[in-house]
Amino acid sequence: MTNSSSRSSVLRPTLFILLSSFLTGCVTSTVQEIRETTTGVTTEDTVVVLGKKDRPSSQETELDFVGCVSGNLSAGKTGITAISEQRFVDEMFPWFEPRTAPIRTSNLTKLINDPLISNKFKEIGLKYLIWIEGNTERTDSGGTLTCGVAPGAAGCFGFLTWENDSAYEATIWDIETGKTAGRVSSEATGTSFMPALVVPIPFIARVKNNACTSLAKQIGSFIQNSG
Questions:
Q1: pLDDT tens digit string along 123-139?
Q2: Using CA atoms, how far apart are residues 203 and 192, in angstroms rounded to an integer?
Q3: What is the pTM of this model?
């Protein structure tokens, strides 16, 4: 009786882990970096993560992704203080407002080298400005799903599958030198699927979240590691 109870207690967490893994789609990711100068931060330094602003707005880097990277940088055990994009925009008014924000890296270089803006950076202790470009998009889909209602019964039958790709690049700008310290890129691909035998059950690949955490981790390592 004791042995049966012991085996049951071991099986429960094992089955839970297996089920949790199965309920998410498959994601593969890669991270790369290019270093141009040495880096480092102190406890008094701050960094800010900004998304590329473009027109039309469909080309902008997603706000939720920018916030995710910034939050992961601040939440990690790196000692890095990342201020929010909105706070930075407010502090730097009007240079980084949506209508006036730089849309190309060349414009960003000019801003960083402007003495007036440079002094504002010093006031908030900004050491690095991290500029993110990229997006997540659906690249493929297939399958069919049919749902119907009959007297006394209802349900769906079929199988759907879709693939999402995330590709982001972060350029780390050194405010003191006004030059690029390096670049970090993160790419993730994931396949989600949804089988349906009466009730549809989605198995979602968290592609964007995977790209975010990978990019944030690599940025933190890049900033703190002098190379």
A1: 999 999 999 999 999 98
A2: 6
A3: 0.80
